[in-house]
Design brief:
- The protein is of the alpha/beta class.
- The protein has one domain: P-loop containing nucleotide triphosphate hydrolases (Rossmann fold).
- 45% of the residues lie in helices and 16% in strands.
- It contains nine helices and seven strands.
- The strands form two sheets. A five-stranded parallel beta sheet has the order 2-3-1-4-7, sandwiched between helices. Strands 5-6 form a two-stranded antiparallel sheet.
- Strand 5 and strand 6 form a beta hairpin.
- The longest helix has 15 residues.
Protein backbone atom coordinates (compact mmCIF):
# COMPACT_ATOMS: atom_id res chain seq x y z
CA UNK A 1 0.00 0.00 0.00
CA UNK A 2 1.42 3.38 -1.03
CA UNK A 3 1.80 5.74 1.95
CA UNK A 4 -0.11 9.00 1.86
CA UNK A 5 2.03 12.05 0.96
CA UNK A 6 3.03 14.38 3.76
CA UNK A 7 0.77 17.43 3.81
CA UNK A 8 2.60 20.37 5.35
CA UNK A 9 1.14 23.47 6.93
CA UNK A 10 4.15 25.79 6.65
CA UNK A 11 3.98 28.68 9.13
CA UNK A 12 6.26 31.61 8.27
CA UNK A 13 6.88 33.28 11.59
CA UNK A 14 8.67 36.55 12.27
CA UNK A 15 8.23 40.23 12.97
CA UNK A 16 6.68 42.66 10.48
CA UNK A 17 9.33 43.36 7.85
CA UNK A 18 11.18 40.08 8.35
CA UNK A 19 10.52 39.04 4.75
CA UNK A 20 7.68 36.57 5.32
CA UNK A 21 5.70 37.71 2.30
CA UNK A 22 8.62 37.47 -0.13
CA UNK A 23 9.67 34.05 1.14
CA UNK A 24 6.07 32.80 1.07
CA UNK A 25 5.81 33.66 -2.63
CA UNK A 26 9.11 31.90 -3.38
CA UNK A 27 8.07 28.82 -1.40
CA UNK A 28 4.74 28.74 -3.21
CA UNK A 29 6.59 28.36 -6.49
CA UNK A 30 8.86 25.65 -5.09
CA UNK A 31 6.27 23.59 -3.19
CA UNK A 32 3.28 24.13 -5.49
CA UNK A 33 0.90 25.04 -2.66
CA UNK A 34 -0.91 28.35 -2.04
CA UNK A 35 0.26 31.25 0.10
CA UNK A 36 -2.30 32.36 2.68
CA UNK A 37 -1.57 35.93 3.78
CA UNK A 38 -3.92 37.21 6.47
CA UNK A 39 -2.60 40.73 5.94
CA UNK A 40 -3.50 40.67 2.25
CA UNK A 41 -6.90 39.14 3.02
CA UNK A 42 -7.71 41.79 5.62
CA UNK A 43 -6.55 44.64 3.40
CA UNK A 44 -8.67 43.29 0.55
CA UNK A 45 -11.70 43.18 2.81
CA UNK A 46 -10.97 46.68 4.08
CA UNK A 47 -10.99 48.01 0.51
CA UNK A 48 -14.14 46.12 -0.41
CA UNK A 49 -15.94 47.26 2.74
CA UNK A 50 -17.95 44.05 2.89
CA UNK A 51 -16.69 42.28 6.00
CA UNK A 52 -14.88 44.63 8.38
CA UNK A 53 -16.79 46.85 10.78
CA UNK A 54 -15.52 50.31 11.74
CA UNK A 55 -13.78 49.06 14.90
CA UNK A 56 -11.77 46.45 12.99
CA UNK A 57 -10.92 49.01 10.32
CA UNK A 58 -9.64 51.41 12.99
CA UNK A 59 -7.52 48.67 14.57
CA UNK A 60 -5.83 47.88 11.27
CA UNK A 61 -5.10 51.51 10.48
CA UNK A 62 -3.55 51.97 13.95
CA UNK A 63 -1.39 48.85 13.62
CA UNK A 64 -3.33 46.86 16.25
CA UNK A 65 -4.30 43.21 15.84
CA UNK A 66 -7.73 42.24 14.54
CA UNK A 67 -9.74 39.99 16.91
CA UNK A 68 -8.90 36.29 17.02
CA UNK A 69 -12.47 35.27 16.18
CA UNK A 70 -12.46 37.30 12.96
CA UNK A 71 -9.06 36.05 11.83
CA UNK A 72 -9.63 32.40 12.79
CA UNK A 73 -12.91 32.31 10.87
CA UNK A 74 -11.35 34.00 7.84
CA UNK A 75 -8.40 31.58 7.76
CA UNK A 76 -10.55 28.50 8.27
CA UNK A 77 -12.78 29.53 5.35
CA UNK A 78 -9.71 29.94 3.14
CA UNK A 79 -8.12 26.63 4.16
CA UNK A 80 -11.33 24.82 3.25
CA UNK A 81 -10.75 25.70 -0.43
CA UNK A 82 -9.66 22.83 -2.72
CA UNK A 83 -6.24 24.33 -3.53
CA UNK A 84 -5.18 23.83 0.11
CA UNK A 85 -5.86 20.10 0.12
CA UNK A 86 -2.18 19.14 -0.31
CA UNK A 87 -0.70 21.85 1.90
CA UNK A 88 -0.35 25.60 2.26
CA UNK A 89 1.94 28.38 3.44
CA UNK A 90 0.71 30.73 6.17
CA UNK A 91 2.10 34.27 6.14
CA UNK A 92 1.11 36.39 9.15
CA UNK A 93 -0.90 33.72 10.97
CA UNK A 94 -1.03 32.71 13.77
CA UNK A 95 -0.14 35.79 15.83
CA UNK A 96 -1.69 34.96 19.19
CA UNK A 97 -1.90 31.87 21.42
CA UNK A 98 -5.60 31.49 20.60
CA UNK A 99 -4.87 31.55 16.87
CA UNK A 100 -2.01 29.05 17.28
CA UNK A 101 -4.22 26.68 19.26
CA UNK A 102 -7.02 27.01 16.72
CA UNK A 103 -4.61 26.20 13.89
CA UNK A 104 -3.07 23.21 15.72
CA UNK A 105 -6.47 21.64 16.35
CA UNK A 106 -7.48 22.24 12.74
CA UNK A 107 -4.27 20.67 11.39
CA UNK A 108 -4.41 17.68 13.74
CA UNK A 109 -8.01 16.92 12.81
CA UNK A 110 -7.17 16.93 9.09
CA UNK A 111 -3.76 15.26 9.05
CA UNK A 112 -1.53 18.26 8.31
CA UNK A 113 1.99 18.53 9.78
CA UNK A 114 2.92 22.02 11.00
CA UNK A 115 6.40 23.26 10.11
CA UNK A 116 7.31 26.62 11.66
CA UNK A 117 9.97 28.75 9.97
CA UNK A 118 11.07 31.57 12.26
CA UNK A 119 12.85 34.45 10.48
CA UNK A 120 14.99 36.42 12.93
CA UNK A 121 15.70 40.10 12.14
CA UNK A 122 16.98 42.91 14.36
CA UNK A 123 14.19 45.42 15.10
CA UNK A 124 16.26 48.43 13.97
CA UNK A 125 16.68 46.77 10.57
CA UNK A 126 12.95 46.07 10.46
CA UNK A 127 12.12 49.75 10.97
CA UNK A 128 14.60 50.79 8.28
CA UNK A 129 13.14 48.25 5.87
CA UNK A 130 9.50 49.16 6.37
CA UNK A 131 9.84 52.94 6.40
CA UNK A 132 11.61 52.62 3.03
CA UNK A 133 8.94 50.36 1.56
CA UNK A 134 6.68 51.55 -1.27
CA UNK A 135 3.86 49.71 -3.05
CA UNK A 136 2.08 50.00 -6.37
CA UNK A 137 -1.63 50.59 -5.64
CA UNK A 138 -2.61 48.93 -8.92
CA UNK A 139 -0.61 45.66 -9.11
CA UNK A 140 0.59 45.42 -5.50
CA UNK A 141 4.31 45.13 -6.33
CA UNK A 142 6.54 46.05 -3.38
CA UNK A 143 9.70 48.13 -3.64
CA UNK A 144 12.26 49.38 -1.13
CA UNK A 145 14.04 52.71 -1.54
CA UNK A 146 17.33 51.16 -0.37
CA UNK A 147 17.35 47.50 -1.33
CA UNK A 148 14.92 47.29 -4.27
CA UNK A 149 14.16 50.73 -5.75
CA UNK A 150 12.09 51.15 -8.92
CA UNK A 151 13.90 52.01 -12.16
CA UNK A 152 12.22 55.44 -12.15
CA UNK A 153 11.95 57.11 -8.75
CA UNK A 154 8.44 56.80 -7.33
CA UNK A 155 6.98 54.91 -10.31
CA UNK A 156 6.08 51.22 -10.66
CA UNK A 157 8.24 49.33 -13.16
CA UNK A 158 5.29 47.23 -14.33
CA UNK A 159 2.50 49.70 -15.01
CA UNK A 160 3.86 53.21 -14.43
CA UNK A 161 1.56 53.84 -11.46
CA UNK A 162 2.74 56.30 -8.78
CA UNK A 163 4.00 54.34 -5.75
CA UNK A 164 2.49 54.93 -2.32
CA UNK A 165 3.44 54.34 1.32
CA UNK A 166 0.99 51.99 3.01
CA UNK A 167 -0.59 53.32 6.17
CA UNK A 168 0.85 50.43 8.17
CA UNK A 169 4.37 51.38 7.00
CA UNK A 170 4.34 54.72 8.83
CA UNK A 171 7.04 54.67 11.54
CA UNK A 172 4.59 55.21 14.43
CA UNK A 173 2.44 52.35 13.17
CA UNK A 174 5.50 50.13 12.65
CA UNK A 175 6.58 50.63 16.25
CA UNK A 176 3.10 49.73 17.47
CA UNK A 177 3.10 46.62 15.29
CA UNK A 178 6.48 45.57 16.71
CA UNK A 179 5.25 46.10 20.26
CA UNK A 180 2.17 44.00 19.53
CA UNK A 181 4.47 41.36 18.09
CA UNK A 182 6.73 41.40 21.16
CA UNK A 183 3.86 41.09 23.63
CA UNK A 184 1.63 38.60 21.87
CA UNK A 185 3.49 36.79 19.13
CA UNK A 186 6.98 36.03 20.44
CA UNK A 187 5.58 33.79 23.24
CA UNK A 188 4.16 31.55 20.50
CA UNK A 189 7.64 30.12 19.99
CA UNK A 190 7.32 28.39 23.34
CA UNK A 191 3.84 27.21 22.39
CA UNK A 192 5.18 25.62 19.19
CA UNK A 193 7.98 23.94 21.13
CA UNK A 194 5.60 22.56 23.74
CA UNK A 195 3.34 21.16 21.03
CA UNK A 196 6.33 19.39 19.50
CA UNK A 197 6.17 21.28 16.23
CA UNK A 198 9.16 21.35 13.91
CA UNK A 199 10.66 24.80 14.53
CA UNK A 200 13.38 26.14 12.21
CA UNK A 201 15.11 29.37 13.33
CA UNK A 202 16.83 31.19 10.45
CA UNK A 203 18.80 34.45 10.54
CA UNK A 204 17.11 36.75 8.02
CA UNK A 205 18.95 39.98 8.86
CA UNK A 206 21.49 40.31 6.07
CA UNK A 207 20.97 37.85 3.21
CA UNK A 208 19.21 38.94 0.02
CA UNK A 209 15.87 37.18 -0.58
CA UNK A 210 17.25 34.60 -3.02
CA UNK A 211 20.02 33.51 -0.62
CA UNK A 212 17.61 33.40 2.32
CA UNK A 213 15.25 31.28 0.23
CA UNK A 214 17.97 28.70 -0.40
CA UNK A 215 18.71 28.57 3.34
CA UNK A 216 15.02 27.93 4.05
CA UNK A 217 14.81 25.20 1.38
CA UNK A 218 17.83 23.40 2.84
CA UNK A 219 16.38 23.64 6.34
CA UNK A 220 12.90 22.45 5.41
CA UNK A 221 14.09 19.19 3.85
CA UNK A 222 13.06 16.16 5.93
CA UNK A 223 15.75 14.94 8.29
Amino acid sequence: MTPSPVRNAVVLFGSPGSGKGTQAKLLTGRLGVPQISTGDMLRARLVSGNSLDLAVRANMQAGALVSDDVVNCMVEERLAQPDCALGFILDGYPRTADQAHHLSLWCESRGFDEVVIYLLVDYNKVIARLTGRRQCPRCGTLYNLTTRPPAVDGVCDRDGERLVTREDDQESVIRERLEQYRRQTVPLLEYFRQRGRRLLEIDASNDPPEVLFQKICRSIQPA
